[in-house]
Amino acid sequence: MAGEAGKARTVLLATEKAFAAAAVTKIEEVLKEAKYTLKKLENYKSKDELLAAVSGVDAMIIRSDIVDASVLEKAEALKIVVRAGAGYDNIDLKACEAKKVTAMNTPGQNANAVAELVFGMMIVSARNNFDGSSGFELVNREIAFYGFGAVARAVHKLAQGFGMKSFAYDPYIPAEKIKEMGAEPVATVAGLFEHQYVSLHVPLTDETKASINKDLLSKMPKGGTLINTARVEVVHEQDMLDILKTRQDFCYLCDVAPKDIEPFKAAVGDKFGKRLIFTKKKMGAQTAEANDNAGVAAANQIVGFFEKGETRFSLKA
Prior knowledge:
Belongs to the D-isomer specific 2-hydroxyacid dehydrogenase family. One of its GO terms (molecular function) is NAD binding. This protein folds into two domains: about 10-110 and about 285-310, NAD(P)-binding Rossmann-like Domain (Rossmann fold), CATH 3.40.50; about 110-280, Rossmann fold (3-Layer(aba) Sandwich). Helix 1 runs parallel beside helix 12, helix 5 packs across helix 6 (about 150-160) and helix 10 packs parallel to helix 11 (about 260-270). The protein is α/β, with parallel strands linked by helices. The radius of gyration is 21 Å and the shape is elongated. The chain has helices at about 20-35, 45-55, 70-75, 95-100, 110-125, 150-160, 175-180, 190, 215, 235-245, 260-270, 290-310; strands at about 10-15, 35-40, 60, 80-85, 100-105, 140-145, 165-170, 185, 195-200, 225-230, 250-255, 275-280. It starts with 9 loop residues before the first strand and ends in a 9-residue tail after the last helix.
């Protein structure tokens, strides 16, 4: 259990999309120093492989891998699972609580990587994917953040360098604190959509799923651009398609495509890659630095949990 120091532990690194080799080496070094055993399941192809691998392990490090009731049932010795990243909708938190398994994420470890992806997509869109036509500059533009955690604040920092003005809404951060951090607080979610750029930084929950709908998107001014590096499911898919079809000025920049990309391509025609940008895989944390940061943080949190009883980044259902 947490705080029971000095015991032998086995940690499973279960990554369908594997970490870079250098990151795995650093994870292994952290665990080796604690005298823990690292068990690796990388690039696996079926859930059966995961179900077999979890037996007997004390802890798990995952990325976008699914930890649900069936996994927890097979992981009879499991005490903690850490998602190396910010989002955690791939972990069944209710099932974890029922099995008395602590779930954590590693917030902030991939913030710079995601922030740079946001600006990469913004620049590509603003400059028409460098097709030779005239675009526009980002200086003096406005960007509004739905959620103002570590990733959003990293984007905000870059926005300041670009001479942009930032606005933010976060129900968990007082308005005066948002103002202290250099952004103008907004009172409601709807108020964010009065600005040209809206950047989403919210988890996928029952409340946020499909919450970005036609009513909100229709409020955006000419050249309105939604940036989604959160989860594709927070945007109402049909409403987004309708907006793209009816507003030729509207842009959608998203880190990972929907399952059926063809209707979106059809909605924008030859403006795909300009008005509409999708990454091929979720790319926000796909940098060497983010790999290292998130993986090592996950390993350190597991050691801290067992050796010192630390639960700072615990998640609740």
